[in-house]
Design a protein that fits this description.
The protein is α+β, with helices and mostly antiparallel strands. The chain is built from 7 helices and 15 strands. The chain folds into 3 domains: 64 residues, RNA-binding S4 domain (Structural Genomics Hypothetical 15.5 Kd Protein In mrcA-pckA Intergenic Region, Chain A, Roll); 93 residues, Pseudouridine synthase (2-Layer Sandwich); 106 residues, Pseudouridine synthase (2-Layer Sandwich). The strands form 3 sheets. Strands 5, 6, 7, 8, 9, 12, 13, 14 and 15 form a 9-stranded mixed β-sheet that branches. Strands 1-4-2-3 form a 4-stranded antiparallel β-sheet, with no helix packed on it. 35% of the residues are buried.
Length: 308
């Protein structure tokens, strides 16, 4: 397909232009298009040249994209075991283990929670943010364990995702971080942006210079210490909208990175093979479409052993 750069998009990064214009294609898929030499810019001599994702769009340029023909939609995978915590005709709450992706990244990929969800509850295919994420109202990092909420029809999906945006859904997380000098309660109010040098991380914009340069999104995390065990604090945190890596980046920004979180400078602990974050509670107050519910997941054994 071809995209002509308009005045509105002139000056924007090319990869962001593709995310905006290619329906159902996310940042990871756009990156693959660049990596596989599928994006070209047609110059004044009508000869296309290979584009880079960081290129800046110019008014009137023609961008030629060889969109991958293989569908990116999740495929059913009955081999994926699901720990269903709560189920109705409208919603499903699943307890995801650490190490399992929420949704597939590559076309035809299997093994994610979304693949298993689609196999057991085919009706989730009718809704979701994209065919790659059938029914999922939100996601968790691969190494974050805990509760994921999925809708089984478009009406429930619209209601629950609106509830997430309006902070009506109570989502709580348990985490382990260093105890020393951590107040018993607190609020971390630091805006977050994609890291300008490392796409695997997000940047906590502590300095006004970072805010000016990176155009971050507002992010607030509240917490309370549940218990202390020597050098380890067991903390309950809430992050209403939960931007990507929000809790991990916020605790690192206050110099209390989660144990096991190497990406954000967290220390290791014996017996811990991933970052110590678990989504342990989801509560919905209810409305005319989806009745009220509460789902709870206990701290996984790998984390519980560290605070016994």
């Amino acid at each position: 397909m071809r995209i002509t750069v308009t005045a509105e998009d002139a000056g924007a990064r090319l990869d962001k232009l593709l995310v905006k214009n290619l329906a159902g294609v996310g940042r990871a898929q756009v990156k693959r298009l660049f990596d596989r030499n599928r994006v070209h810019v047609i110059g004044a001599n009508d000869r296309p040249h290979r584009a880079q994702k960081g290129d800046v769009c110019q008014l009137g340029q023609i961008i030629e994209v060889d969109v991958e023909t293989q569908s990116s939609a999740a495929v059913p995978d009955p081999s994926v075991a699901l720990n269903v915590v709560f189920e109705t005709e409208q919603v499903v709450v699943v307890d995801k283990p650490a190490g399992q992706p929420s949704a597939p990244l590559e076309p035809g990929e299997k093994g994610s929670l979304a693949n298993g969800l689609l196999a057991r509850f085919p009706d989730v295919a009718s809704t979701g943010f994209s065919p790659r994420e059938p029914g999922l109202c939100h996601r968790l990092d691969t190494d974050t364990s805990g509760l994921l909420l999925a809708a089984r029809n478009p009406e429930a999906f619209e209601t629950l995702t609106k509830g997430l945006r309006e902070n009506r859904i109570d989502k709580r997380y348990l985490l382990l971080c260093p105890s020393a000098d951590l107040p018993d309660t607190g609020t971390i109010d630091i805006p977050l942006a994609p890291h300008p040098k490392d796409r695997k991380r997000v940047l906590a914009c502590l300095h006004p210079r970072d805010v000016a340069r990176n155009n971050p999104r507002p992010a607030t995390t509240s917490y309370r210490v549940v218990s202390r065990h020597g050098e380890i604090a067991l903390v309950e945190a809430t992050a209403p909208r939960a931007l990507r890596h929000q809790i991990r980046a916020h605790f690192a920004a206050i110099e209390h990175p989660l144990y096991g979180d190497a990406l954000y400078g967290g220390s290791t602990l014996p017996g811990l093979s991933r970052h110590a974050l678990h989504a342990h509670r989801i509560a919905w107050p209810g409305d005319a479409v989806v009745p009220a519910f509460v789902a709870v997941s206990p701290l996984p054994e790998e984390l519980a052993k560290l605070v016994e």
